[in-house]
Amino acid sequence: TEESAAKVFGSLDDDNSGTISFDEFSNFMVARRKDTDTQGQLEDSFQAMTGGAEFITEDQLKMILPADQLSQIIENMPVYNDADGNAIGYDYKAWLSSAYN
Q1: Quick one: which of 53, 56, 99, 95 has its CA closest to 78?
Q2: pLDDT tens digits, residue range 3-33?
Q3: Closest Cα to residue 49, out of 72, 35, 32?
Q4: Where is average pLDDT lowest: 9-18, 44-53, 61-70?
């Protein structure tokens, strides 16, 4: 829900800037990852960043990744299309699925 996404977003925004910096997101991912990270946990992290959307936009990725990592992700993450076939973002679920299977 939007409420739970807002709660997670608030917990990530350490400096209360209204945005999540790459360092804030990295700290969150490292804390979540440890040695027990699962596909579901990483999916939860993406959902927190996207407000629960089924895809992540390039602008959202730009907020959390440096340029070199952004280009690598964009090259490897499948495009997410809307019902009309328009590319509207990247399919992080398919990307995670391919990484874990």
Answers
A1: 95
A2: 766 777 777 788 888 887 777 776 777 666 5
A3: 32
A4: 9-18
For residues 12 and 25, is the Cβ–Cβ distance under 8 A? Answer: yes
Which residues, including other chains, have CB under 8 Å from residue 29's CB and lie 6 or more apart? 42, 45
Query: How much of the chain is in helix, strand and coil states, percent to nearest 5?
Result: 60, 10, 30
Residue 13 CB contacts under 8 Å (≥ 6 apart), including other chains: 19, 20, 24
Q: How many residues does the chain have?
A: 101
Kind and range of the H or E element at 88?
strand 87-90
Q: Which residue, 16, 40, 46, is CA-closest to 28?
A: 46
